[in-house]
Amino acid sequence: MTDQELDLSPYAVRTDLAVEAREMAGPPDTPIPGVWQEASKNGGITVTRMHIQSQEGARAIGKMPGHYVTLEVPELRRGDTDLQDRVATTFAKEFEAFLSRIGVGPKASIFVVGLGNWNVTPDALGPLVVENIMVTRQYFELMPDQVGPGYRSVSAVAPGVLGTTGIESSDIVQGIVETAKPDLVIAVDALAARSLERVNTTIQIADTGIHPGSGIGNKRKGLTKDILGVPCIAIGVPTVLYASTIVNNTMDMVFEHMKQHTPNTDPLFGVFGSMKENERLQLVKEVLEPLGHDLLVTPKEIDKFIEDIANVIASGLNAALHEAVDTDNVAAYTH
Amino acid sequence: MTDQELDLSPYAVRTDLAVEAREMAGPPDTPIPGVWQEASKNGGITVTRMHIQSQEGARAIGKMPGHYVTLEVPELRRGDTDLQDRVATTFAKEFEAFLSRIGVGPKASIFVVGLGNWNVTPDALGPLVVENIMVTRQYFELMPDQVGPGYRSVSAVAPGVLGTTGIESSDIVQGIVETAKPDLVIAVDALAARSLERVNTTIQIADTGIHPGSGIGNKRKGLTKDILGVPCIAIGVPTVLYASTIVNNTMDMVFEHMKQHTPNTDPLFGVFGSMKENERLQLVKEVLEPLGHDLLVTPKEIDKFIEDIANVIASGLNAALHEAVDTDNVAAYTH
Amino acid sequence: MTDQELDLSPYAVRTDLAVEAREMAGPPDTPIPGVWQEASKNGGITVTRMHIQSQEGARAIGKMPGHYVTLEVPELRRGDTDLQDRVATTFAKEFEAFLSRIGVGPKASIFVVGLGNWNVTPDALGPLVVENIMVTRQYFELMPDQVGPGYRSVSAVAPGVLGTTGIESSDIVQGIVETAKPDLVIAVDALAARSLERVNTTIQIADTGIHPGSGIGNKRKGLTKDILGVPCIAIGVPTVLYASTIVNNTMDMVFEHMKQHTPNTDPLFGVFGSMKENERLQLVKEVLEPLGHDLLVTPKEIDKFIEDIANVIASGLNAALHEAVDTDNVAAYTH
Amino acid sequence: MTDQELDLSPYAVRTDLAVEAREMAGPPDTPIPGVWQEASKNGGITVTRMHIQSQEGARAIGKMPGHYVTLEVPELRRGDTDLQDRVATTFAKEFEAFLSRIGVGPKASIFVVGLGNWNVTPDALGPLVVENIMVTRQYFELMPDQVGPGYRSVSAVAPGVLGTTGIESSDIVQGIVETAKPDLVIAVDALAARSLERVNTTIQIADTGIHPGSGIGNKRKGLTKDILGVPCIAIGVPTVLYASTIVNNTMDMVFEHMKQHTPNTDPLFGVFGSMKENERLQLVKEVLEPLGHDLLVTPKEIDKFIEDIANVIASGLNAALHEAVDTDNVAAYTH
């Protein structure tokens, strides 16, 4: 199915995360036809597996049909290395299961694409992951007989961004795919969050590829099976959010907080309080944008956060892609 | 006067910037006894010179007595190199005038201290400035007769932060001052802003030194004449702000915006709208803090912003401190 | 002509620089048939223009037929910014002339490839140049009518190295060329020098592309018109050299030095002194290699040298490729 | 004993490493009065413990009286992480033993000084070690009752170099020692090697402090007990060497190699071959220096080598200084 067949444009702006889209579509205990979901929680890590099975389900929650897995780790920003190791291990196991669920075999060759910009820290997730991927394709090309068991062909490139290369990263990836001929593309990208709590605490895996308008940069072309000729799994982490998002997000929390103390809330907030969330966000944007104040912001400690989560993803991928790499000690393969 | 003689603790939390403190103390056209002020605007750069002349003035606006100069350049984040050069030149001229106003002669030896943390981009302002300072003290020590005219003795150190050194930066600076014996200390530090528009657009010069609680880090001891034995000029730039500040700041703007469209505002915002600014900020903090969501945030493009403004300050200082460095082409001395 | 038609393999190991190959082929004042050459010297910069016009000439000096321009600037390592600016201006003028000499028009679209490895400083020349190239292709693609006069379509990518991507950089470039369709490729690469004096002081421009075995890395496939379908200009700078090269190079100088003091040299050096240069180099390699001591080394100050020479090349290219960029002040466009 | 009491100036130029000085002083099996030595080899790591017990011993080998421990790991440049972990563990055990041998108790507070220049990779060893030291002094100062058992007070600063601060690093350290009052200083520094094989493969620990003229930079003042008032342990790693050293070093190997094949060597090398090593080195320097070619060079892969060896030292120190940090898994505490 192409983007054209299912017009998601009105939804596309809402969120890059399937779990958020699901929340916005209705209460969690009311099933949505065409949307299968299960969640498990263990040691501070919540894993949600979702399958949007039909166009009906896709329309209901505003996300492309496909498989989605989300890891939510609220404490991930604390810098706890034990937790980071457990997240990497969980990521590895989920990713392995994800590959087999969508039919990617243990011999399939893989090309990891790190989208984003080296020089903009919160957008450097993709390049940082690529830097720590254990690449093996060269051995399969040059001396296939000597590659030990338990490895597959893996390659990895950070194609840069339009503003620094002059070429859409989608075009660069497409060109490389044509010459390197992988069976699958994995694209790692930084996303804009819809709430402060998600920034650098959530990782999403999806088999829908990268679509125009997602991620931090302005991508005019996506990375999808239609464009690349091979399937594309997207790994995304929210690393920035709009000032207006913080405001709107916080106002919800303030109203909720005040409601708990005063049942009759209407006079408390007046017209502003009774606005729908979308209207209020629109108003906030109307005020901030003309002044150039609706900035994308990121936590002060972003350098450390990005490094940590890039290591989690890279070591998780190394363990998931190569059987010979042990999922119980994945961190040893990155630095 | 020491910190003890004038208790500014209730004010200290409000703002590190004298121009903001002045705004909060009353309308700009109503004079405040003991506070002299003048402002000029030229080519997108507003320069405000303030002199808090008495304890009465200090109490009125909640800042230490002393001289303050502020450069406000709303467009500084645009990456316009011409504007950056003009800001550097303006900074150099203002700094030169500032030195002579407070009685620092052309031969006084100077020690530039870059406070903050290399590894936390929005806190790296001080270390980045130090990296581009033209140091000359070694020539004055080793071959004083051969130093050309138009230079003075300048040294520069980035002492690191408590969390990475185990020693208060104030103690490190004090130790170096005792052995290097400069006539004046200039301390460069990143600050927390009270509004999004100030982030990386405002530079403050003050002869009051650095006081506990100012800047981004948690400084328990300051850098003042009392502690160091020599005067200390502080140069500060807001580079981060709290999520709660963004919310409160934006709510002001939203209310202002709505008032302009509907004269009768009370029912519009209810109790929330009629709260005093401080109360509302308190409420927002009460909601965000328990969740760990009152993060310090910084613009996504902070890497570039910090580099640009550090270059402005370093090249401005080089021109102001060394007569032989031309104020009209200050940028050539940094990279 | 392809590589296959002219077997240069016995020569290929000798040197990547045409001026060195020419020196090794015979005294400078004895013309070599099929090799045209002229040199000019100005302000510490020697420019040598060479045209290897025939296979006879190519065989005589062991380099592919084609145009070569070399800038030799012995003082370039001194960190003199005035000299750097003059080298950038000279480079820009020579490159512009080179383009017109080989028939590349002012509208030809250009793709700059930065070969090498970000994380290995002396091999980071290509990526550093790419970072400072003024890319414009995106404007020609998205809003061709609005591009001002004096610019051409320029794009730039650093494809990484085989060891970190798993894909030959030649394959990556080929894929990008197929989708981005430039008229010309410019490949920037770090080279191994044959003498200490050349390290970071020499820049070569050649229209022969990149051939297997050149540069620092082990390139199995080249970047040539045969492979890419469009012409490829190579820009190379020697940034490393073998320990054995230093030894052999220095022994020459020592023998020369001693000869000047004692006419009868044979008993001075014995068998070792009377060896041919190649034999002696072979002996030195035989001794060092088994111990793993024939390291590639680079000057201690390589971080600064690489940054400086990358800026020279990037600002020179920006001025040469875009008429609107002034060759007299090229440095302003890089940082 | 001060530097003045024992004039080592004629020896000082020879080598910073005690094991090299010992080699130069005579055959290993001939005891030198006043010099005690033992060596052990295990898993590719040779540990040499030396005690220069008297002025007689000091004069004989040209090094200050004191304790020296050297780790030689010829394979350390191979990037083998297992070996790196074993070196870190060995370093930790040797350093712990060293501390108790020279009478430093488990409660002694320690100040780690990282000498050298961040921006010059082969000189960045000290700053990189400091970045990974587990500092605890702040807890002992602010909440001494809450510090867990098995930790001591550790602080760490990288003071920069004279060329970028304008202040001798010795003066900066002295000033900090006066305010921070540690019981012991540990100074980490990069050294110039006397042979290619030592570069980034050898670590020396010595209780003699840092003396003028040692290390890479030009240090006019040292870091000794005389100057600091507290003892100073120096940790040094050779990371660069002179081009002339490579030549001389290799010529030895070449002559040795040729002798093994031809018993009658005199006619093989002539006068040059029969020169004493010092004379030959002098001749090589005479030839290279006027041309500016006696560069300090470093291996091409220096970025990785320095990072690896800095991690070895930092994790080794963390384990040696804090009992609570396990010597068997020291690497987990650095990144």
* Average pLDDT for all residues of chain A: 88
Beta-strand residue percentage of chain A: 15-25%
What is the multimeric organization of the chains shown?
homotetramer
The CATH superfamily of chain A is HybD-like
CATH topology of chain A: Rossmann fold
Number of strands of chain A: 9
* Cα-atom radius of gyration of chain A: 20 Å
* Poorly predicted regions of chain A: 1-13
Helix content of chain A: 25-40%
Give me the secondary-structure category of chain A. alpha/beta
> CATH architecture of chain A, please?
3-Layer(aba) Sandwich
Largest interface: A-B, 45 and 45 residues
Per DSSP, the total helix count of chain A is: 13
Summarize this structure briefly.
Chain A is an alpha/beta fold and 335 residues long. Chain A is 39% helix and 18% strand.
Notable features of this structure?
9-stranded mixed sheet; 39% helix; homotetramer; Rossmann fold; globular; alpha/beta; 335 residues; 13 helices; disordered N terminus
